Amino acid sequence: MRKWFCLLLAVVILAAAIPLTGCSKSESEEPYKIGALFAVTGGNAPLGEPEKQTIDMMVKKINDNGGINGHPVEVITYNYESDAAKCATYAEKLITEDKVVAIIGPTGTGDSLAIVDACRDAEIPLISCAAGVSIVTPTATNDKHWIFTTPQLSVMVIQKLYAYLLTQSITKIAILTDTNGFGVDGKNNLKAQAATYGITITAEQTYGGSDADMLTQLTLIKNSSPQAVVCWGTSPGPAIVARNMTTLGMTNIPLFGSHGIAFQSFITAAGASANGVIFPCGKLPIVDSLPASDPQKDLLTTYRDEFNERYGNGTANTFGGHAYDALSIVVAALENAVDETPKDINSSDDTLQTVRGKIRDYVETKVNSTGFAETGGFPGTAGVFNMSAENHNGLAMSCLVMVKIVGGKWTLVAE
Amino acid sequence: MTTEVFVQSLVSGLTQGCIYALIGLGFTIIFSVTGIINFAQGEFVMLGGMLSYFLAKSAGLSVFPALIVSIVIAMLIGAVLYLTAIRTARKASVVSLIIITIGAAIFIRGVAGELWGADPVAPPYFTGDGSISVLGASIQYQALWIVGVTLAVSIVLHLFFSYTMIGKALKASAMNRTAAGLVGVNTRTMSLIAFTLAAALGALGGVVIAPLSLTSYNVGAMLGLKGFVASSIGGFRSHILTILGGIALGVMESVTIALNWGPFRSNYKEAIALVVLLLVLLIRSRKLSEEERAS
């Protein structure tokens, strides 16, 4: 009996080994390995999900078109469930076990901050998809040498909003912010920059998690007689705020949102109350209104159409775009600055480390008007990037537009 | 604080509190009959809201049929949860069973996220998005539905536990499981009924609040926590104290926002539930140790 068992075991092992040797990859098939960390579930899921979907879509497209310099690309993606501790664990895994050449993500600011030190110490480029300024500053110390980020930074978005408010002669605002990381970051920035623009904050209120309505906060806000309400949060909070303002008859006070409401789901959820809401954001929602001369127009149209075709109409959003930019940058670096084959990289830690360094140097010195003179920088979905040693985000204020919801549709606000 | 703000905060607090009460009742019923804290309770609130939205959207059901079908589906899931995960492990310790419910919660949330995506959704209001004005405060029609439904459920539950055979058997199992078994109550069936009933209450709460608060696959944990606090106020045994506790918690949170003074601001609202929970535990643990000493 035992003999039979041993024999059977041997057969099973042999059988298992055949396909292994059968499909051992030839040199040209071995892929470049890039790591990605996204919050596909949990609080940041509305951002992390389109990021992951974007990467899946891009990897297929790149490999269908012959890969990078003839080599396929593989993106190893981990869902860290909006949990900074898990994010740190997965980052460690990407660096030491999966031996990727660069990391894309994470989705959130807090999660990015949780891994910047590990990336610096391991000397691996991190291209974050989160908007907190602290991720890439200060650049004077060597701490952020390896860290880059692709979204428009939160500070910039608020400057854009304040500048617009002044053109509308609005100087008294009430702020209503989410208690999550995005809302707190927004609140601090809104307060810190108000004085510079001569804006007074008449009331500051917050809302959290499972609130059924924000009627009490809005009544307090109404009584403070602001000229406008600024709501800083991600779905579903701002949609409830918009609806509650209608309920309270606050129709004469305009509602301004953050780029966190640049989702179709905001319009669906807020219904008719969404009309009239104005928010600063990247150009994706209003790409059709851009002039043909805009360096981002073709890229944005292609990204939006391909995403919508694959994942359903109206699903493309600016957040998936941040992952698009991050991967595009890494791919450009691999194409233009890396001669090592994936086989070399995957078999030698020294080569891996050299390649990581080459990618970092390329991003800092070439993802700008030096490397892409024609377009005045590296064109992405968020804007035209001009990275430098001092600026590891590289976006300018001009990549932001003001968007107004009219008749349930995003429209470009003329400035 | 103006009257307008105060009345508005009472109205909002009552609305929110009713939901906490419905969720809390689920905790109370399951604990009193089985001795288990069901941490998947919040997920049934999520299921109620999400099911009602997607039934209305894809199956074209109108509000009330969608409400009933959602609750029935949630009850089935509650029953399946008991039969597959809890009953099969009935020889395990209570702590293990509680851990199983945490696992179940994660599982339900994960499946919901896969099925329905991460975007928040807004089911339609039961009777339009209008509101009435009382002393300067706005009461949305949906808030009236929430309060009405909670009141109706409280009365029906009271009648059920006082006058029906099953209700009395449940009550008996809650008082003394062994004695109830000795007089012929099938305590396992009672546990099944408790899980199903709790699922129905949670889902009902989810269906009525979703048009106001919107819902998404991950709202369960937060609402579950608030319901847990409501139930703890009732000592996990008293239905009426759970309902009052839930409403009190909602009103306290809301009045904190309205005060807008010192530590009583919207920023600190989320801390109220935890402070209440701490106080309840402190008071109850003293009571328990006194009882022990007495015996």
Explained architecture:
Chain A has 415 residues and is an alpha/beta fold. Chain A has two domains: 30-152 and 301-395, Rossmann fold, CATH 3.40.50.2300; 155-281, 3-Layer(aba) Sandwich (Rossmann fold). Helices cover 44% and strands 15% of the residues of chain A. In chain A, strands 2-1-3-4-5 form a five-stranded parallel β-sheet, sandwiched between helices. A four-stranded parallel β-sheet of chain A has the order 7-6-8-9. In chain A, strand 6 (172-178), helix 6 (181-194) and strand 7 form a beta-alpha-beta unit. Chain A is elongated. Mean pLDDT of chain A is 90; it is low at 17-25. Chain B has a single domain (3-124, 133-284), classed as Orthogonal Bundle (ABC transporter involved in vitamin B12 uptake, BtuC), CATH 1.10.3470. Chain B has eleven helices and two strands, in the order H-H-H-H-E-E-H-H-H-H-H-H-H. Chain B has helices spanning 3-34, 41-58, 63-86, 94-116, 141-163, 165-175, 177-182, 187-213, 220-233, 239-259, 271-294, and strands at 131-134, 137-140. Chain B has a two-stranded antiparallel ribbon with strand order 1-2. Chain B is globular, with a radius of gyration of 19 Å. Chain A binds chain B through residues 40-43, 45-46, 48-49, 179, 205-213, 215-217, 219-220, 223, 235-236, 239-240, 243, 246-249, 263, 265, 268-271, and chain B through 2, 4-5, 8-9, 11-12, 15-16, 19, 110, 113, 117-122, 129, 131, 137-138, 140, 143, 146, 209, 212-216, 218-219, 222-223, 226, 254, 257-258, 260, 265-267, 269-270.
Offer a few descriptive terms.
heterodimer, A: 415 residues, alpha/beta, Rossmann fold, 2 domains, 13 helices, 14 strands, 44% helix, 15% strand, B: 295 residues, mainly alpha, ABC transporter involved in vitamin B12 uptake, BtuC, two-stranded antiparallel sheet, 11 helices, 2 strands
